[in-house]
Amino acid sequence: MMCVDLACILALKFITVVTKNSEKLIRGLALRKNRKKTGLFIAEGLKLVTDFVSSGVEVDIIYHVGPIAADLQGDRTMEISESDMKRITFLETASSVLAVFHQKNEDLKSFVNAPFILLLDRVQDPGNLGTLLRTALWYGIDHIALVSGTADAWSPKVVQASMSALAHVKVVLLEEQEWLTFASDNQFDLVIADMNGTPAKSFEWSSKQILVMGNEGQGASDILKSSGRSITLPGDASKMESLNVAVSGATLLYEYASSRRF
Fold this sequence. Notes:
Blueprint: H1 6-13, H2 20-28, H3 32-38, E1 40-44, H4 46-54, E2 59-64, E3 77-79, H5 82-88, E4 97-102, E5 116-121, H6 126-138, E6 143-147, H7 156-162, E7 170-174, H8 176-185, E8 189-199, E9 209-213, H9 222-225, E10 229-232, H10 245-259
Parallel strand pairs: 2-3, 5-6, 5-9, 6-7, 8-9, 8-10
Antiparallel strand pairs: 1-4, 2-4
Helix pairs in contact: 6-7, 6-10
């Protein structure tokens, strides 16, 4: 149907068409190598995008369908059509807002004086990683250490699963030996989540520790296991071999928070 009245013409005037190059860039951010190369990541949904913006994460561009809140409007905001949004979304059902952000660059300086660091050793499921990030933040833990081989914290699935926790936590990725050196140099105790360890209820937390949650199938690496104390959640191993890493991590974080009376 042809648009002939003035109101229709004015409405169409402000809708931007997503170019092929822009679509290629956005779709390319599904791959870790492209996120690493560009330093960009995708967030979708009004609340998620608003949280990243309000926390000061640098915006590259925000695409939206229909009206958008005044605090998101600016020269990096573009209104697009529903059909364009469906072409660039990573969700099964497209949201009305999709934004491209610059990844936060963190270093180890702020980690040195943190009382508690959550270290994730080759946790590969994006849902587990996102859940651990937002659970850690819930309990006031905002320093997250990742070992090479862990899912990328800036992947679309992790960003969505973290429910904006990435806007507030500090994430650093290093090799496991680098984390061991960091722990030794800065007087951190390593606490390894393991099936064979001190029950969490009677565990004595130190003033500075790194809690290690290992790979879903293999647990923590041998070198990490041999470098710290083990902690476990007592249960009936005859009925269930193990707990999901996100569930285990959430329970151990609760135990730590309870010991500090958060």
